Amino acid sequence: MPHPRRERFAVVDPATGDAFDEAPDQQPDELDAVVGRAREAWAGWRADPEARTAALLASADAVEAAGGELAPLLTREQGKPLAESYSEIARTAARLRHFVAMAPETRTITDGRPVHSEIRWRSLGPVAAIVPWNFPLQLASAKFAPALAAGNTVVLKPSPFTPLATRLLGSVLSAALPEGVLTVVTGREPLGALLASHPGIRHVTFTGSVPTGRAVAAGSAPGLARVTLELGGNDAAVLLDDVEVEAVADRLFWAAFRNCGQVCMAVKRVYAPARLHARVVEALAERAKTVVVGSGLDPGTELGPVNNAAQLARVERCTARALEEGARAVAGGHRLDRPGYFYAPTILTDVPPDSPVVMEEQFGPVLPVLPYGDLDEAVEAANATRYGLGGSVWGTDLDRAEEVAGRLECGTAWINHHAELSLDQPFAGIKESGVGVAGGPWGLYGNLRPFVVHRPREGGR
Q: Which residues are catalytic?
């Protein structure tokens, strides 16, 4: 029977600001059936590792084959350049293959007792994967690939700003997976909150804002479900006094502005030595003024729009306040006069160090560049935030740069680059940047629980 209210909701193209399609607005009372099917599918899915491997490898092939359909749809609803959408799809397929090849290791405990003790690994059950709008497919795969490879089933909820490509991805995957193993649900709140708190869910993996992450953790607490939270960052790039400004300017710019700055581990503030500060600002501003901004479907576009009206308003407020406090926009500093959610790539100087654009995560195409006189002060300023996801140090003396990187309070530190991750490495933050670990074997074991079996050794009792 159709639901009498809010059966569908509009999906907006951020390059035009107009709705171009609709997605099902699934209601909370549908979750019991969805989670129930995931629970039923779990028994067969966890029981046959060989069949699971074959299905996931077929899924990866299917994702690649559907790239021509998925990429334009992802760009249409998210805004990013088409080439970046294709990269998301490639990453999705790669993650499936990566985790399929990563089997948990059974271990034997040798401690002098006359028993044979073995540590085995078991899956958890239905997993709720709740994904934001900045990398809908890539972040979805970062959650469902290890969960499925570990023998769990998954209920995947995308952001209501970007539901369409994820729904299509779910359809593509369903052709290779048994029924109920991966289900995509779409809808507006409180659907995500109720999924996270559903008593049939055994692991909640969420990427998004700190306030929503807290709500997810609180909602999952009564059922004691495991929680993995990636809650964003405010990554600092510290430039040393031996940095070659022109040599790193392109890398530094794109580390901040890729995906229109809508990257949790993007560079969101730069600390430059006072004697180099003007050169750094000039080099970054030159790139901000010449980068091609437009619809992600246009072949020449390098930078797309901000994804949604609410985020654009946040970027505008954050920048306007900085300007009111005395900051100066050397490039940008305003919304572009065209349809859609376009904001001019912005480089700010003379920014008060306690301005929200410095202390908070602006999550848009705005970058403050702050001078420092003493390196210790720069490191202290880099660490003076409630976030701790990533950070980077830039200079020619790599030993010195590595020493400074070791002083950053974050989960990942890069030297002379930023926001590059391998599928083999852990990804986690400290402080309010999250709880738990994704990536590599840590991501796989985060979806498993240990099961210990003791038996007497031969001749024992």
A: 230
